[in-house]
């Protein structure tokens, strides 16, 4: 990933097209370090998290996965950052990438974006990412998409609460959002984010250890090995009907 700054906005760009910006140990570590740097920079009012290529984040890097505890720490640090984090999405978001999207305070996307919780098709569950997502999502929609792994578009993502807004030109859509953040006081932003992210932070604190253990157990299971192997071999897993 790489970072840039302009007029109070720090932009962090996921830039690992070889693995579709998957959550490798290296990427998670780089993101945590970059977020810490923005927290310490008094010139930064808000953070934009975006990507190169056609995928915002493909979820866990199945070849080089990060430790679930490190991913949990990334989610906590994003939620607790005293500056708003704004997701800018123009491509696909899958599995764990949806947790990264969900922990952002504001999320905007373009028309080519798509979304899917693919875990159940791999013998897994959206365990860790459920903590930032369930407080934000329509409960019926969350149950449907968590269970079925169906893909959906930006309009549906906005309807169910995954996105804040979407439009044909994501940068034009974000202009008034970023203008409003630039005019806000640092103290006002920090105090207001603490209010709006309270349910997410509470869930991460309350359920973090239990759900990281669940995630690690599922990844180590025989069904997950079959699901992940089937994905790499481009075939249906043995349980698929």
TrEMBL record:
Quote any Pfam family the record assigns.
ECH_1
Q: Which SUPFAM superfamilies match?
A: ClpP/crotonase
Q: Which domain of life is it from?
A: Bacteria
**Record family assignment:** Belongs to the enoyl-CoA hydratase/isomerase family.
List the NCBIfam families hit by this protein, alphabetically.
PRK07827.1 (NF005879)
User: What name does UniProt use for this protein?
Assistant: Enoyl-CoA hydratase
Q: Which organism is it from?
A: Streptomyces nojiriensis
């Amino acid at each position: 990933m790489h970072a840039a700054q302009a007029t109070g906005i720090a932009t962090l760009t996921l830039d690992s097209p070889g693995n579709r910006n998957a959550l490798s140990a290296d990427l998670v570590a780089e993101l945590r370090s970059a977020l810490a740097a923005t927290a310490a920079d008094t010139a930064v009012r808000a953070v934009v998290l975006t990507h190169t290529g056609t995928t915002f984040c493909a979820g866990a890097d199945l070849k080089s996965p990060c430790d679930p505890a490190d991913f949990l720490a990334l989610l906590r640090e994003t939620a607790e950052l005293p500056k708003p984090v704004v997701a800018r999405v123009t491509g696909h978001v899958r599995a764990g990438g949806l947790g990264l999207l969900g922990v952002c305070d504001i999320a905007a996307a373009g028309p080519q974006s798509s979304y899917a919780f693919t875990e159940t098709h791999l013998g897994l569950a959206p365990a860790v990412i459920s903590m930032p997502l369930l407080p934000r999502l329509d409960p019926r929609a969350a149950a449907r998409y968590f269970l079925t792994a169906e893909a959906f578009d930006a309009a549906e993502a906005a309807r169910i609460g995954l996105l804040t807004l979407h439009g044909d030109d994501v940068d034009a859509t974000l202009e008034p959002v970023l203008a409003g953040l630039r005019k806000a006081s640092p103290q006002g932003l920090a105090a207001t984010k603490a209010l709006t992210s309270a349910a997410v932070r509470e869930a991460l604190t309350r359920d973090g250890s239990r759900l990281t253990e669940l995630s690690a157990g599922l990844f180590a299971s025989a069904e997950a090995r079959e699901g992940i192997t089937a994905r790499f071999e481009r075939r249906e897993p043995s349980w698929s009907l």
